[in-house]
Write a structure and sequence with these properties.
Elements (H helix, E strand, L loop, with lengths): L3 H14 L3 E8 L4 E6 L4 H21 L7 E6 L2 E8 L3 E7 L5 H28 L1
Antiparallel strand pairs: 1-2, 1-5, 3-4, 4-5
Helix pairs in contact: 1-3
């Protein structure tokens, strides 16, 4: 695709800004890993599950007339899984500790997802032209 190194750099910057993140990955909307900065999870499996959750979230958002998908937050006993739209072609999924400030998580993740979306969408556009 051509944007993997830049996307990985953004994931690493995000983890630096939010120390309570245990992992970060960017995936295509169909579940392929684009870049990852996560060591304690199987990235391919998480990406595939993210794609499945994204499909349900898209349908739910549409069925309830809430507009285009923006983000999904799951709170588990041991922390959070947050997924954010990243342009038209990608999603950002974050794994966070339970003590994270969720407002800060959203603020920083939204910034990063915008950056990642621009990188991935531009790479997709270049690939389609070439």
């Amino acid at each position: 695709m051509g944007a993997e190194a830049d996307v990985l750099s953004e994931l690493r910057r995000l983890r630096t800004r939010i120390p309570q993140l245990r992992g970060a990955l960017a995936a295509s909307v169909d579940g392929l890993v684009l870049a990852q900065d996560a060591t304690d999870v199987e990235a391919e499996g998480v990406s595939a599950l993210t794609a499945a959750a994204l499909g349900v979230a898209l349908r739910l958002s549409e069925a309830t007339h809430q507009g285009d998908f923006r983000e999904l937050l799951i709170r588990g006993e041991h922390g959070y899984v947050a997924t954010y739209a990243a342009g038209a072609s990608a999603v950002l999924t974050l794994l966070a500790e339970p003590r994270i400030n969720v407002g800060r998580l959203h603020l920083e993740a939204r910034r990063s997802s915008t950056c990642i979306g621009e990188l991935v969408d531009a790479a997709v556009e270049r690939a389609e032209e070439g």
